[in-house]
Design a protein that fits this description.
Layout (H helix, E strand, L loop, with lengths): L2 H44 L5 H13 L17 H17 L10 H9 L2
């Protein structure tokens, strides 16, 4: 291989590495989306909308004023650089927390008695 070809390859190696990193991230994002789609189809196909537990969960969300996110929240499941994975996982966790139903709070004795007497 002539020295000019080797020099051209060395000069172009940084651009190829950058392109390779972009391609890897694009493929990882596709894997994340395919995982989401697979899980969405599975849950949609196996969940009975008439199940009392599902209805109860829907009512709790409605009572808490929680609507589904406008766009799906994708968890980073593809193999990436650990720093990138940690950042994406933290973003996903922060987004999920916005749409979580708060745990039911325990009623105090006075509230319990007021509900009992209010029958």
């Amino acid at each position: 291989m002539p020295y000019r070809d080797v020099a051209a390859l060395l000069t172009d190696s940084a651009a190829r590495d950058t392109q390779s990193a972009r391609d890897s991230e694009n493929i990882a994002r596709l894997v994340d989306r395919l995982d989401y789609l697979l899980n969405f189809d599975y849950v949609g196909g196996t969940t009975d909308p008439d199940d009392p537990e599902v209805k109860r969960d829907r009512e709790r969300r409605k009572a808490a004023g929680i609507k589904p996110p406008p766009l799906p929240i994708l968890a980073p499941i593809a193999l990436r650089d650990p720093d990138v994975t940690a950042e994406l996982a933290e973003r996903a966790r922060a987004e999920h927390q916005k749409y979580e139903v708060p745990p039911p709070r325990k009623l105090g004795l006075r509230e319990l008695m007021a509900r009992y007497e209010g029958r």
